[in-house]
Design a protein that fits this description.
Distance between the termini: 25 Å
Order of helices and strands: EHEHHEEHHH
Strand content: 5-15%
Helix content: 40-55%
Largest sheet: 4 strands, mixed
Strand order of the largest sheet: 2-1-3-4
Number of helices: 6
Length: 139
Amino acid sequence: MRELTVLYDEQCGLCRRFRAWLAAQRPAPNGDGGVVHLRFVAAGSADARALYPGLDHAATLREVTVADDGSVYVGDRAWIVCLWTTWEHRHTAVRLAHPAMRPVARAMVQAAAGLRSWTSVREGGDYADRCDGTCDVEG
């Protein structure tokens, strides 16, 4: 994997913080002598629709979605792939990808969805602008 596109809800404060955190991480090697490059695209945007016309773009506003050279990852798989692209957290991603650890990864995604909802309420609204509040809490 040379490049990973991360579709995120730019209207969600938690999503923007996750984007900033991920962008600040040291990139991990890609196996070809380079590193995995990250490209961030606003979910549901014209750019996202042009890049991935076959995606359910309303769903990408509810859950982090990432894509590489042909695969699309959603939910806990997307979080695991994002961690895998980082130098410091790759080992954690490998562990979370193991079938025995996938329930832990799903629980982390559910916690993030709950935190997204909670922080949106604290910021003065029920949910972030354009977020319909149906983040997948069951994985």
